[in-house]
Each structure stands twice: as C-alpha cells, then as structure tokens.
C-alpha cells in the first residue's frame, strides 16, 4: 500500500527559476515544502558528506536529513539557509539556490531571543512503498522546539518528513543512501488535536 499525503504541497524541481516554488500558506519553518532535487540517476557532481556519518541505512539518512533541515541556531547560523546547507550533506545533490535563500518567517524571532530550534525525530508508523535495490522510502515524525538563550520558549511544532532515497554504487565517490526527494508536511503545534 502506498502512503498518501493529505496536506497540500507544492513541488519544486532543480533548475526552476527563482520564485517558481513555494509552500502552502503557513508562516512557519518549511511548512509544506516539497523539493525533488534529483532523479533516480547518478548525480551530476558527488554530494558532500557529513564526516563520520554512516550512509548505509536509509532510516539513518532520513533522520539525519530531517534534523539538519529543521534545526536552526540564531547564535551560530548566518540565516535560515544554513540549515539547507547542512541538510545537503544527506542529499543526492545540494538544494537549488532558490530553496537555500527562501525566507523564514520565524528567523527574526529566533534572532531576537538568540534561540535555536531543537529537533526530536521518531520513526514513522505508517505504510510506505516497498524498497528496491537502489530506491527506498522512509518517513519520520519531527517535533521542533525553539529555545532562547534568554529563557524564551517558542511553540513546539510537529512535522512529517518523507524521504525518497537513492543508493549509489559502492564504487562512486560518495556511496550509500542519499535523499533524492523530500516532503515536509506541517502537522500543527504540539497542543493541536
């Protein structure tokens, strides 16, 4: 059985002109983002890698990707685009510049409180498509918690992060599983039913 996503999402593809992609009408981090970043073929350039990370398990790659793309730290990041750069270490190819420079509605609030967004992920319990030798589908549920160095606490938000992964050949420069496409679905604040 194939999972279906109930939330409205907008699909963006590599090479689209700036402004051609967007998210559904939410004013929070990454709500509704869908960003296919590569086809199931070999990437044009070897992807970057996270030092010491094991890319052999698709579950681990999807979890690390979700944490990287949802985590922000206003004390060390130059802007919300830094999360996209970190997440690129788990992807077939880096996110397009249009995705990396997209504004973030909560960034100003994070800066005001010198805050970071902590991310907790857990396994998705729903059904996903079957794996194939070079493709896999994984999903995680993520809870984000804004925490300010001044004691401020923002609203916890919940997301489902769906990853379509591609496994490169062991002989390639960066072997293992990488996120080829993803969808981040906003599920609401932690107190929502």
Question: How would you explain this protein's 3D organization?
Answer:
The protein is an alpha+beta fold. Helices cover 16% and strands 27% of the residues.
How many domains? The number is 1
Rg over C-alpha atoms, rounded to the nearest angstrom: 16 Å
CATH topology: Nuclear Transport Factor 2, Chain: A
Would you count the extended β strands for me? 6
Overall form: globular
What spatial order of strands do you see in the largest sheet? 3-4-5-6
Question: What tags apply to this protein structure?
Answer:
4 helices, Nuclear Transport Factor 2, Chain: A, four-stranded antiparallel β-sheet, 16% helix, 193 residues, alpha+beta, 6 strands
Provide a short characterization of the protein structure.
With 193 residues, this protein is an alpha+beta fold. It is built from 4 helices and 6 strands. The protein has one domain: Roll (Nuclear Transport Factor 2, Chain: A), CATH 3.10.450.
Describe how the helices and strands are arranged.
Blueprint: E1 10-11, E2 33-34, H1 58-70, H2 81-87, H3 97-100, H4 107-112, E3 115-123, E4 135-148, E5 157-168, E6 176-189
Parallel strand pairs: 1-2
Antiparallel strand pairs: 3-4, 4-5, 5-6
Helix pairs in contact: 1-2
């Amino acid at each position: 059985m194939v999972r279906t996503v109930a939330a409205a999402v907008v699909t963006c593809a590599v090479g689209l002109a700036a402004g051609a992609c967007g998210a559904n009408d939410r004013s929070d981090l990454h709500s509704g983002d869908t960003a296919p970043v590569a086809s199931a073929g070999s990437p044009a350039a070897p992807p970057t890698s996270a030092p010491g990370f094991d890319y052999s398990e698709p579950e681990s790659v999807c979890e690390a990707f979700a944490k990287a793309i949802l985590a922000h730290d206003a004390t060390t990041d130059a802007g919300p685009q830094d999360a996209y750069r970190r997440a690129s270490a788990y992807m077939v190819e880096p996110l397009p510049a249009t995705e990396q420079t997209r504004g973030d509605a909560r960034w100003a609030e994070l800066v005001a409180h010198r805050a970071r967004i902590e991310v907790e992920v857990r396994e998705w319990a729903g059904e996903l498509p079957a794996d194939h030798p070079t493709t896999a589908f994984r999903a995680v549920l993520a809870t984000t918690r804004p925490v300010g160095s001044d004691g401020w606490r923002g609203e916890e938000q919940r997301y489902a992060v769906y990853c379509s992964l591609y496994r490169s050949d062991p002989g390639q420069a960066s072997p293992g599983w990488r996120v080829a496409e993803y969808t981040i679905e906003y599920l609401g604040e932690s107190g929502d039913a």
